[in-house]
Amino acid sequence: MKEFFTNQMDYIYFLYGFAFLVFSISCYFLGKSKSSKLPWNSLFFFALLHGLNEWADMLVFSIGDAPYFNFTRTVTLGISYFFLFEFGRIALKDQKKIGLGTKIYLLMSLCHNPVSNHQSCKYFPFYALV
């Protein structure tokens, strides 16, 4: 069973990315609603960038990986998680639950080890923001 899924990873990444793109479309239309108090635009950008990043990961199986392509995917992943964090931060602030200011980003950036290699930097946005 493991071998079957390993051979089908390009299809899995395609469906995973497609699901995020459909999610981004629903967030877009929820953001147009005047009755919603949630920052749907932030979640829209998260889902859009994350879906595109999954499709870029899918391309690695077809065309291979290069350092600049890996860097682009890492930056896209980090920006997508930034928008997810912004969705939660703004939603909590608007619901008057917790008032996290933008200084939280400075605190999180101090937790990053700048000496680490590039491969570990790919997962830093995930662990820093989630």
Verbal overview:
The chain is mostly helical and 130 residues long. The chain contains 6 helices and no strands. It has helices at residues 2-7, 9-32, 40-63, 67-94, 104-110, 118-129. Helix 3 (40-63) packs antiparallel against helix 4 and helix 4 (67-94) packs parallel to helix 6 (118-129). The radius of gyration is 17 Å and the shape is globular.
Summarize, please.
It contains 6 helices and no strands.
Keywords:
130 residues; 0% strand; mainly alpha; 78% helix
Layout of secondary structure:
Elements: H1 2-7, H2 9-32, H3 40-63, H4 67-94, H5 104-110, H6 118-129
Helix pairs in contact: 2-3, 3-4, 4-6
Oligomer: single chain
Order of helices and strands: HHHHHH
Fraction of residues in β-strands: under 5%
**Number of discrete helical segments:** 6
Percent helix, as a range, is over 70%
Span between N and C termini? Answer: 31 Å
Uncertain segments: none
Shape: globular
Annotation, overall tally of beta strands? 0
How does the major sheet shape up?
A: none
Structural class computed from helices and strand pairing: mainly alpha
Radius of gyration: 17 Å
Average pLDDT rating: 81
